[in-house]
Design a protein that fits this description.
Structural class: alpha/beta
Shape: flat
Strand order of the largest sheet: 3-4-5-2-1-6
CATH class of the largest domain: Alpha Beta
Strand content: 15-25%
Number of strands: 12
CATH topology of the largest domain: Rossmann fold
CATH architecture of the largest domain: 3-Layer(aba) Sandwich
Number of domains: 3
């Protein structure tokens, strides 16, 4: 019976089936949990949701307060009538609540003994149980209070550590991304309705002759819109997970010192001995309100030491994966090598010497791929994310670099004295911001690989619509539109498997 109900919900995918699925999977149980943070605090919030929520108020508060109004009440154990605490109580009758069910919140003092007593008291009530991780949000989804993109936005908002992450997550939680996908889905369904009307009524001449032309034109417009959304250089995903920045260079140019200066703590060991750093040292930073994963890497050089050789391999691998590469060079060596005012060529040659470009000779195509101004590169936006940093400028006081405008972004610093660090940080922050974009401007960005997967499949089905949209294959073309609409539906709520729900909700904290 349970398997049949799951199958029914998956096949039909409408409101009733989502609620039936919710009842099958979770029964009619009432759940409760501590929704505020664990540990000693001034106030703790215990949330309750489910059909018996009102019973918890009757037995523990003695009466149900007015809806959506905070009232100060003494709270009791249900069995012994012993007082637990005196706190604020709120009552949210469904469906006007977070989960869409009857909900209540107890705001009590945040001492561990009070919280434990409250949870024990709720556990005494028949049909009440502790909530699983993410179960409140899962019930909100099942009761159509949130779609899947809003659920994911809420999860990102809880996890946000920087201002830009907060802005992006809030925008997604408020439905901007889901609304855009659902608008596309409605447009596809409208095209599908026109095509099916043509199939059913064209022989009776009860339908306009150009109905297929309108559908074809609309599908082409949507393909261009979706491709534009997909070709965003993964800004939203990069902002959500952090911009990967790798510091690369020869041994003893100050890579670990630069990492420590940016972190403002001794995150990496600094030593005059070449080859001190053998592995990748990574730390998370907030630069200009954007998340950054900064990596210090092993010095790049030929070595016979097996451990150091592995460190060099990992350094090159991290450089290839990085969104921004900081190429660090020694000022004394750079001042003698930099003679022709061509920073681009210097960086290309230096990358080749370090082994980052690979190959046995200079490869202009590879140089263009790695260099910021490398012509018609495949990913020009990402190619511009290379910084040349000249360190130890305090050791060459007589040298004053004069970098011509338009060359690769360059900064001169001294990790010892701090000279030039402010300019370098501003330069890095500008590159990080460019890589992530402004989360509040334009259309909302893709934030999940899951969205990208389904949207790519949707575009593929829409393109297939043209290849089969002929008189003899009009039925097959309609099927492509159905598949396209189904892929968009999987992003928001019309899904084909309960498994995806477990993936989405598994990382939520208890009480949310």
């Amino acid at each position: 019976m349970i398997l049949w109900m799951k199958h029914l919900a998956c096949c039909l995918g409408h409101t009733h089936c989502r609620r039936v699925s919710q009842q099958v999977l979770h029964g009619h149980g009432t759940i409760f949990a501590l929704s505020s943070g664990h540990g000693r605090s001034g106030v703790a919030v215990i949330r309750v949701s489910g059909p018996s929520t009102s019973e918890s108020l009757r037995q523990m508060v003695r009466r149900i307060p007015p809806p959506r109004k905070a009232v100060l009440r003494r709270i009791y154990f249900p069995q012994s009538s012993e007082a637990i605490d005196k706190g604020l109580v709120l009552w949210f009758p469904g469906p006007k609540s977070f989960t869409g069910e009857d909900c209540a919140e107890f705001q009590v003092h945040g001492g561990p003994a009070v919280v434990t007593a409250m949870l024990d008291a709720l556990a005494e009530l028949p049909g009440f149980r502790h909530a699983e991780a993410g179960e409140f949000t899962k019930r909100a989804y099942m009761n159509e209070q949130l779609d899947l993109t809003e659920v994911e936005g809420l999860s990102d908002l809880i996890s946000a550590e920087t201002e830009a992450q907060r802005r992006q997550a809030l925008r997604q939680m408020e439905g901007d991304l889901g609304n855009m996908y659902m608008t596309w889905r409605r447009r596809i369904i409208k095209c599908l309705a026109n095509v099916e009307a043509y199939i059913d009524f064209s022989e009776d001449e009860n339908i306009e002759d150009d109905v297929l032309d309108h559908a074809r034109s609309e599908v082409q417009v949507m393909i261009e819109e979706m491709k534009g959304h997909l070709h965003d250089n993964r800004r939203g995903e990069r902002l959500r997970s952090g911009v990967r920045v790798a510091i690369i260079g020869e041994p003893n140019v100050g890579k670990s010192s630069l990492l420590n200066a940016l972190c403002q703590r001794p995150a990496a060991i600094v030593s005059p001995i070449a080859g001190t750093t053998r592995d990748v040292v990574e730390t998370a930073l907030n630069i200009g309100g954007y998340p950054v994963l900064l990596s210090d890497t092993a010095g790049l050089r030929e070595t016979g030491d097996a451990v150091e050789k592995e460190g060099v391999r990992r350094a090159i691998e991290r450089a290839e994966q990085a969104d921004i590469k900081i190429i660090l060079v020694d000022a004394s060596k750079f001042s003698s090598a930099y003679t022709n005012c061509d920073v681009d060529k210097f960086v290309r040659d230096h990358l080749y010497d370090l082994g980052v470009m690979g190959g046995t000779q200079h490869d202009d195509n590879e140089a263009e791929r790695l260099m910021p101004d490398g012509g018609d590169a495949v990913q020009p936006e990402e190619d511009r994310q290379t910084l040349l940093v000249v360190n130890k400028c305090d050791l060459v006081p007589s040298w004053t670099p004069d970098f011509p405008p338009g060359d690769v972004a360059t900064a001169t610093v001294s990790c010892t004295t701090g000279e030039g660090m402010e300019h370098f940080i501003n330069l890095l922050a500008e590159r990080v911001k460019r890589g992530c974009g402004n989360p509040l401007s334009g259309n909302p960005s893709l934030t999940k690989a899951r969205h990208r997967h389904h949207l790519t499949r949707c575009v593929s089905h829409l393109e297939s619509y043209f290849s089969v949209e002929q008189e003899t294959d009009i039925v097959l073309s309609a099927q492509q539109l159905r598949k396209a609409a189904r892929e968009l539906g999987k992003i928001t709520w019309k899904i084909s498997s309960e498994d995806i729900l477990d993936v989405i909700f598994k990382d939520f904290c208890i009480g949310k």
